Structure formats: C-alpha cells, structure tokens
Amino acid sequence: MSNQYTRIARDGLWDNNIVLVQALGLCPLLAVSGTATNGLGMGMASTAVMIASGLLISSVRGIITPQVRIPIFVLIIAVLVTLVDMSMNAWVHDLHKMLGLFIPLIVTNCAILGRAEAFASRNRMLPALFDGAMMGLGFTLALVLLGACREIVGSGTLFANAALLLGDWASSLELVLIADYHGFLLIILPPGGFIVLGVLLAGKRQIDRALSARSRSVLLQPSAS
Amino acid sequence: MNAPSVAFRKRILYQALLLGGFSTLATAMLVAGNIATRGAILERQQEDLLSSLNQVVPAAHYDNNLLDYPLRLPGRSGKMLTVYRGTRGMQISSLAYEIFGQGYGGEIRLILGLDAAGRILGVRVLAHAETPGLGDKIEVEKSSWILQFNGLSLDHPPQREWKVTKDGGRFDAFSGATITPRAVLQAIEVGLLFHREHYTELHNPPAIFNASVASDEAPKHE
Lengths: 225, 222
Fold this sequence. Notes:
The complex is a heterodimer. By secondary structure, chain A is an all-alpha fold.
C-alpha cells in the first residue's frame, strides 16, 4: 500500500508534475509568478482546492454516472474555488488584493479537472486526498521556483511582502538581494514568465537525462521497484 | 454509501436528480460560505476605504469618522459618485471622492481629497492598468509625481494651465509616458469642476447636524 503512496508522491512532485511535465494551468501560473510570495499564495490556494475536490469527488464517485460526471465535477470545483476566494478575501485580505483577480481563474486550471477525472473519480478517498495534496504541492513548488527566479532577476528581491501571506514572522524572509536595483522589466511582464518557464522545463529535462544515464549505468543491479 | 441499482441509474430521472441534487448542495455550500465571510469582507472593505481616504485627507482636517456622512451625487459622466465628508465643529472641512481618467491601459481610478476652500489635500491612485515601469509612476510608492498637486486648486493655477507641458500646460509628464499623466490631470480637473458645480450641496452640513443642534440645545433649558 505504501508503494502506491510513494508512486503518487513521485508523480505529483516530479514525474508527472503539473507545470513541469503536464504543462497545465499556465494561465494563472504566468500571471501570478512575478514574485515568489504571489506564487506561494496562488499555489496554496490551488492546493486547497485540489485536496478538497479530490476528497469530495472521490466520496461521491459511487453515485455519479459517466454521462453527467463532467458538469458535476465542474460544479464542485467552482464551489470550492468560490469558497477559497471568499475566505481569502475575509482573512488574508492584503494578499487577496494582489491575487484577487486570479483566484477565480483556478476554476479554469484544467489540472484540477484533470486530476478529478483521471484520479479522484477512480480511487478511494485517502489516495485521492493524497494525490490532491501532492499534485498541489508540485504545482506550488514550480510556482515558487518560477516566482523566485523572476523576482530575483526582475526586481532583485526575494519573498517581498511575505508577511502579508504568512504573518509578521515572515518579514525575516523578505530579502533585498540587489540593493539599488533598477529592475528588469521583461522578466516581470508575462513574456518573462514564458522565458523563465522555458528555462525551468529545459532544466528538468537535463536533470531527468542525467538521472536516467546514471540508472542505465547501474542497470545490472536489480531494481528495487 | 449504497450504490443505486443499475437499472435505476440508467434512467434519465436519475441523471436529473443527480444534477439537481448537486446544484442544491452547491448552493447550500455557497450560502453558508457567504454567511461566514460576509461580515469580515465588509469590514476589510471599510478598512480599505478608510485607509485610502486617510491618504488624501490628513487627520488634522476633520474630527469625525469620514464614513459618517456619505453623499451621493451624479458625477459629470452620469455615474453616481459617493462623496465622503470630514467635518470640524459644525462645518464641512474636507471632502474626498473618486475621480476617473482614461489611461493607456484602461480606466485609472483615483481618489481626490479637497479642503473646505477647494484646494487639493491629496490625490492617490486606487487602481490602474498602466504599463509597469512607465505609467505606474503615478503611484505614490513609485514616484513623488502625484504629490505636486497638493495645495493646488482650479484657480491656482488657472484652469487653462491644467495640462501637461506638451499640451501647453504647466505639469511635467514623466519620461516615456504622456497618456497616463494626461489622463490623471484630466481626471483631477473634472474632479475640481465637479466640486465647483456642486458647491452648495457638498458644503451643506449633513441633516443630522441640525437635529443634533436641536437636541444639544434642549438640555440648556433646565
């Protein structure tokens, strides 16, 4: 059983990462990844939606028929996104002001519907919940990485405004890496998002290639999986 | 969970019930969510409003809560405007209301604060979609450009000089952007004209004052 969870975790974080492999959800991704903090906020909101939608859809999979499944999945996801939107507006208002426009766009993140269709509707609740968490975490990591790269190159800071998201203790995370930096506008604007994403995708390919080359060299030893 | 029988599941009624049931459930969840967050959201919005009002009307100019006596008047574009009024003593001492300009990237929303004589106490951008790095110098966080209007009024400088230098006025546009400063200037000018046109309505003390004057005087007969 634990093997299944290892598989899910590997899929979500690396092998089948929403951003780096499936390349889904790019619209919210490119829009909010201007800073690491925004990326983290968007990633956390999406993760909450993925966990809850995985759990809910898995719990009703027994009564849903294939003919009406898509409208029901969409309805569930839309309700969850609206709830997340309202709670963020109420309780992390400053962050909501920065991300507000993009929170409703989580509905259009096809990765969430994709996981509902491909995983949650076919598995029991616990694996579905875990899958949502891991896919969401993978999405968040990619967003934070992309946001951090764009923020460092584009504005010379890292985790600016983190205190708005995580509370006052997080102000120690806020770094000014390059003082008196005039900014690199291209990287902050959407084209910069595509450019940095391209670099990240290439980087992941390189790592995968290096890993498979190494495993090929130890091919003689029996594989554990 | 009991799975319904296969025969029943195939009927159209089952599909309809399924969709209807989930829609009802979804509505119930949204209602619950709305009830849980409505109060907090309203509070946050009031705080936002108050903090933007405080940026354009310094605290020394009023001794009430700025949200106390809102006045709704038709603006020059036909849109209803809410004017927030600060009072001191029994007099209107300051006014703040939203003004709008048509910028390069769409509408620019600003808030304008005036003192009793119609002099500008402050102007701040509330929302805009101007190009980052060029047009966003209208934000006070990015540049002090917007502060140059403090203390000015429709007669000082004369109205024909309320333009950017390129158009023959006396206000410098910042480098790289002309449309944005022009839009801001125009918004301010329209806002000042609005104040002139509605002077009496704006400066009429709120009705509640007359009532409270009466009730204040009543105990003196003792």
